[in-house]
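To illustrate the input format used throughout this study, we show a single complete record. The first block contains the structure-token representation of the backbone; no residue identities are included at this stage. The design step must infer an amino acid for every position from geometry alone.
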């Protein structure tokens, strides 16, 4: 799937919600780490929307068990409906996962062979780093994957503005990035970052099942993004 222009991902741990997402979303982010039997769910998936599979590790805010995390992603991308896979930048840089797990190099190679887009992601649940670090993270993530995604936490409007400015600089450099500032003070960045070049937005199919702090519901984010761009 190409992310040359903005795509809205409906985030869910339950693929049976896909019909509800169709009206507003371009794809579904399947949070495998939050699902019960993710590989069974994928085998039974017959929805229309392409899937971005995410199996988020605990050290970046997810719930995936330490062992078999990459194996599960390797199994997931074998399904034709899977168009993109999320891999943390730290994992791509070699941070170890479980023993006996597929290597990240094998996973990326398999993704390439299947024409599955790699989203290299970084999450900071504590804050928003200084501008130089933001630039470095976005450049590194965009170089490591087809799209570099950075989600930081905004403690105030200044953090949100810093992330938007870094998004703008990345877009000017031609780096494909996706950004969002988590938390209340960063909420508006979910609607505004696409104006500055962010390629992916995330919103829960069911508002009560948000997958990150400060998310808008799907219909609202779709409308805000479409009106602002
Ligand atoms: O990484 C992201 C972005 C996100 O954390 C957000 O802030 O919308 C939501 C997650 O589901 C997704 O994997």
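Output of the design step:
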């Amino acid at each position: 799937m190409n992310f040359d222009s903005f795509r809205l991902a409906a985030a869910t741990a339950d693929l049976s919600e896909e019909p509800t997402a169709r009206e507003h979303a371009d794809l579904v982010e399947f949070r495998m780490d939050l699902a019960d039997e993710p590989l069974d769910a994928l085998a039974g998936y017959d929805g229309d929307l392409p899937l971005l599979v995410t199996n988020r590790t605990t050290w970046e805010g997810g719930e995936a068990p330490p062992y078999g995390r990459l194996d599960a992603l390797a199994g997931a991308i074998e399904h034709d409906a899977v168009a993109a896979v999320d891999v943390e930048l730290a994992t791509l840089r070699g941070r170890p996962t479980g023993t006996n797990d597929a290597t990240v190099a094998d996973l990326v190679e398999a993704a390439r062979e299947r024409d599955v887009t790699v989203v290299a992601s970084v999450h900071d649940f504590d804050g928003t780093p200084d501008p130089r670090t933001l630039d470095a993270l976005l450049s590194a993530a965009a170089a490591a994957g087809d799209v570099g995604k950075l989600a930081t936490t905004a403690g105030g409007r200044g953090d949100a503005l810093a992330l938007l400015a870094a998004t703008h600089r990345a877009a000017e450099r031609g780096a494909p990035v996706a950004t969002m500032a988590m938390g209340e003070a960063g909420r508006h960045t979910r609607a505004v970052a696409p104006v500055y070049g962010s390629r992916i937005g995330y919103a829960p199919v069911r508002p009560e099942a948000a997958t990150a702090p400060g998310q808008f519901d799907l219909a609202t984010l779709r409308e805000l993004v479409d009106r602002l761009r």
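Structural context for interpreting the output: The pocket of DQA is lined by residues 11, 29, 31, 54, 86, 121, 123, 149, 151, 180, 182, 202, 211-212, 215 (CB under 6 Å). The chain has nine helices and eight strands.
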